[in-house]
Amino acid sequence: MFKPLDIDKNTSAESANPVDSEKVKCLIVGSGPAGYTAAIYAARANLKPVLYEGLQPGGQLTTTTEVENFPGYPEGVTGPVLMEDLKKQAERFGTDIRWGLATKADFSGSVHKIWIDENKLIEAEVVIIATGATAKYLGLDDEKKYAGGGVSACATCDGFFYRGKDVAVVGGGDTAAEEAIYLAGLCRKVYLIVRRDELRASKVMAERVNKTRNIEVLWKHQTKGLFGDGVVEGAILVKNQGQPDEEEVKIKIDGFFLAIGHKPNSDIFKDYLETDQVGYIKTIPGTSKTKVPGVFACGDVQDSQYRQAVTAAGSGCMAAIDAERYLSEKNG
Ligand SMILES: Cc1cc2nc3c(=O)[nH]c(=O)nc-3n(C[C@H](O)[C@H](O)[C@H](O)COP(=O)(O)OP(=O)(O)OC[C@H]3O[C@@H](n4cnc5c(N)ncnc54)[C@H](O)[C@@H]3O)c2cc1C
Questions:
Q1: What is the CA radius of gyration of the chain?
Q2: pLDDT higher than 50, residue 188
Q3: What is the 3-state composition of the chain as percent helix, strand, coil, each rounded to the nearest 5?
Q4: Best mutation site among 52, 97, 154, 288 for ligand 1, i.e. most ligand atoms within 8 A of its Cβ?
Q5: Measured from the CB, is residue 199 less than 6 Å from ligand 1?
Q6: Residues 319, 281: Cα–Cα separation, whole Å
Q7: What pTM does this model have?
Q8: 241 and 222 Cβ atoms separated by less than 8 Å
């Protein structure tokens, strides 16, 4: 049976401090697959987790239709249904799920402080950061117009839907090279749209692109727009933009894949945690531990490699187990 959570409340009515404050054992920030999985494990371990959903309850998967690669759904599942299922499972064990955005962090003391919506202070014994990452887009109106209709920022997730078809990948780094090579194994033809006259990708990856027979690199091309009747049927590119020989080029494609990077949602934690150059939170390899004892990170906010729902969920499980072990060692 669901029981009210045993939370030590210290509201403004009782405190001289005008900021509403509350002490919790385990705070989870983020409601994607990582956050909800951490919540399921933390709740079942009696950590009484409080979870803040952020601006995108359910996370990135709520923006997609078919998810065919999450284990346990043989017929596939829509992103919103999968996330609703995970939420219900976290609630079933007593997770206190709340609307709110973490706006500030202070990990300098033994109790970790997170401010919600700038006006509520949560003091937590352990914090699990599961704030995800956001794919970068070019900023074209057509990317929104054809969202779910041929525009994707994840070849591993959506490539399967374009088997035997023609697609384009935008980007010149390692991720773009990887995505193009992955798609080349599924699609008839892959255009790699590169702004410059060389790839930023490593030499090895660049060579693999060059050797892949069905990848055509479009050097010094930029995307101007997409066209199609309801779904993507092609892209309008500009070659040699700003040069005397500038020209417009049209390609026929069924899928348009962005591979220009992701932005991990780690800004508010950066003063206290180590991140890489892009902003991914660094964890001790093989664990979810950050350099601050009692603060754990899971999911896409700490994963520049895999960025899948199932890997996010797996690392959410690790974070809850790491948090439980930390607390039992600390509290004896
Ligand atoms: C269109 C699309 C399709 C995809 N398709 C697939 C697929 O088919 N299969 C697959 O395996 N993967 C897919 N992915 C990738 C998958 O969605 C991600 O790998 C996964 O969602 C990462 O989970 P996460 O929990 O780390 O973070 P996210 O899902 O990004 O969730 C982050 C959560 O943190 C919250 N948050 C952020 N900042 C704050 C804050 N300051 N305070 C409080 N909360 C905050 C957000 O509101 C959100 O709830 C897809 C991604 C996209 C964008």
A1: 22
A2: yes
A3: 30, 30, 45
A4: 154
A5: no
A6: 13
A7: 0.88
A8: yes
